[in-house]
């Protein structure tokens, strides 16, 4: 076949292919005749390729040498190849794209030369990849052409094509090649705006704005108060990414030096079935991509996956194959805290280096949030433990008395304590707090509370117990002082010892209120304690009320303190009521007075004679 004949045949083929496309558009419901004609033209295209190859092989060679002849042959073959009116891809024996003509680039929506050097099976539908490789091997080994239907997906475009494979020998190539002719029978175009961001400046700006919007959304999500209070940072962040950026999102966190699978978010239309459970149960330590990111401390992006084993294996084979992956992106979470993996299906736009950059920032934010959450929760647990160490969960039954208490924490970890405990002569009670806030003050209060409990087992006088606790506090050198009051019950008699505390209030049966002496010097100021000691008789129907500074120091919107006078008025209206009613009445009145604001801890302890 001469060159003019070949050019004329190619022009005629181009015209017939154009007519077939128009027929497919005009009669979309009746594709069978069009498909039969298209397959006939596909055979014609394959024959033309074979004839062109034979013509090149038979072309006379110049006496000047083989090199010039090979170059002329290659030049002629390239001209024919570029002019071919149907998509043609030249593959090597491993399925790697070596040449691609403009019709193929236009069909797949990729720039010229973009797919050269890529593995062609990555464009083939996952379910047909194994069949494609088998056909490719058979064509190379037998020399017999093969044709079959499959799906190609790239840049958000999906094509159902009739694929014809023909073995060929190219001048200057040591190995045999395969020409793949792809005739589309059905095309699904990408959604608007789903093309490559590099196509135009406008699309590039839109993609950059989308990435910036993601960073803002992620920052707002991770800074929410609930994200610190509860372990929701990872689930919320991965759901956000799955909704806008990927089909699959996986978070693997390092615990005890080993990566553990923590979160898996599947495509929203994917059933919660066996595949999701296999991804969840897969060991991230067996993932080459995850371990590489942890080792290097930087992210990786696989724009087109050429190794389906990068994420490990499941019962059905490589995880990425089972997930229908087309591209993958992995970034570190924080500084070695874990790895965030995003996977997109092969029919979606692949991840790019720009996506990698924004996801690295997301991983950094997520790592900071997880660390802050862990630190906050550790401190919260410590605060809860300290609170439990200064306030009993329940009050024991004291013979001859009924007890009730209320405790409200302030704006920070406080230092108030109260307790009812057994002593050598029966029962004792105490209330007080270190002057200060935070964990150190709470630990000092816990030490005082524990000291009162322990020493009360051996001593029958609360004042002696208070003095020994003072000696221990001074010896410890805590640098804090504690206001406290302790009382031991003996029948109807109660002996009180006060160290700088507010006076206890005795509510009498007729509604009268009498305050004890109170006073003394707070514990921890001097080796020798200066206390105020007093004995009270609590008759049946009378209630002894102890309270913290936070109660009477509460202020209203005018800055006025709650005070002991208002306390007495409220108590007077509670005559004959149970201790629980008394403490609730005081609590409600204080809340109304201060508009519900609580700055310092509020503790109220009431014992009523029964």
TrEMBL record:
CDD domains in alphabetical order: PAS
Hydrolase keyword on record: yes
UniProt domain PAS: residue ranges: 73-143
GO molecular function list: phosphatase activity
UniProt entry keywords in alphabetical sequence: Hydrolase
Residue stretches spanning the membrane: none
Name of the protein in question: PAS domain S-box-containing protein
Organism annotation: Nonomuraea jabiensis
């Amino acid at each position: 076949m001469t060159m003019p004949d070949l050019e004329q045949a190619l022009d005629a083929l181009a015209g017939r292919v154009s007519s077939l496309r128009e027929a497919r558009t005009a009669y979309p419901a009746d594709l069978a005749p069009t498909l039969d004609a298209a397959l006939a033209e596909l055979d014609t295209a394959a024959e033309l390729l074979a004839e062109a190859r034979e013509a090149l092989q038979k072309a006379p060679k110049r006496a000047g040498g083989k090199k010039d002849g090979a170059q002329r042959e290659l030049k002629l073959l390239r001209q024919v190849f570029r002019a071919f009116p149907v998509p043609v891809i030249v593959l090597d024996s491993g399925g790697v794209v070596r040449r691609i003509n403009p019709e193929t680039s236009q069909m797949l929506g990729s720039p010229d030369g973009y797919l050269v050097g890529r593995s062609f099976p990555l464009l083939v539908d996952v379910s047909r990849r194994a069949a494609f490789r088998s056909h490719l091997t058979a064509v190379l080994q037998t020399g017999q052409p093969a044709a079959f239907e499959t799906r190609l997906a790239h840049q958000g475009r999906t094509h159902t094509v009739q694929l014809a494979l023909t073995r060929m020998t190219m001048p200057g190539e040591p190995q045999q090649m395969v020409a793949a002719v792809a005739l589309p029978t059905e095309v699904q175009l990408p959604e608007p705006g789903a093309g490559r961001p590099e196509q135009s400046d406008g699309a590039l700006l839109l993609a950059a704005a989308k990435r910036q919007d993601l960073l803002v959304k992620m920052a707002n999500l991770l800074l929410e108060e609930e994200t610190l209070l509860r372990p929701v940072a990872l689930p919320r962040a991965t759901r956000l990414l799955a909704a806008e950026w990927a089909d699959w999102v996986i978070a693997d966190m390092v615990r005890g030096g080993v990566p553990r699978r923590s979160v898996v978010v599947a495509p929203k239309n994917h059933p919660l079935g066996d595949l999701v459970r296999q991804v969840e149960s897969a060991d991230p330590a067996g993932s080459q991509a995850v371990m590489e990111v942890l080792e290097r401390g930087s992210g990786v992006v696989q724009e087109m996956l050429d190794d389906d084993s990068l994420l490990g294996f499941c019962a059905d084979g490589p995880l990425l194959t089972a997930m229908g992956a087309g591209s993958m992106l992995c970034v570190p979470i924080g500084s070695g805290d874990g790895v965030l993996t995003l996977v997109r299906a092969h029919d979606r736009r692949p991840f790019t280096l720009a996506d990698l950059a924004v996801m690295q920032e997301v991983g950094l934010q997520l790592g900071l949030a997880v660390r802050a959450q862990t630190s906050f929760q550790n401190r919260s647990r410590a605060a809860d433990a300290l609170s439990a160490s200064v306030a009993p969960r329940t009050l024991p039954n004291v013979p001859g008395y009924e007890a009730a208490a209320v405790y409200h924490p302030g704006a920070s970890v406080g230092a108030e304590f109260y307790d009812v405990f057994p002593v050598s002569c029966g029962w004792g009670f105490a209330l007080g707090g270190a002057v200060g806030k935070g964990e150190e003050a709470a630990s000092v209060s816990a030490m005082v509370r524990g000291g009162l409990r322990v020493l009360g087992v051996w001593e029958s006088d609360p004042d002696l117990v208070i003095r020994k606790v003072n000696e221990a506090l001074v010896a410890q050198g805590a640098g804090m002082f504690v206001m406290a009051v302790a009382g031991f019950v003996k029948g109807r008699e109660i002996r009180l010892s006060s160290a700088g505390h507010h006076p206890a209030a005795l509510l009498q049966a007729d509604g009268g209120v009498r305050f004890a002496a109170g006073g003394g010097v707070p514990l921890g100021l001097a080796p020798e304690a200066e206390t105020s000691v007093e004995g009270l008789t609590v008759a049946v129907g009378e209630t002894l009320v102890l309270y913290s500074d936070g109660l009477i120091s509460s202020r209203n919107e005018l800055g006025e303190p709650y005070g002991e006078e208002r306390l007495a008025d409220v108590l007077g209206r509670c005559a004959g009521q149970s201790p629980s009613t008394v403490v609730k009445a005081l609590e409600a009145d204080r809340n109304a007075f201060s508009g519900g604001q609580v700055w310092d801890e509020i503790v109220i302890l009431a014992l009523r004679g029964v």
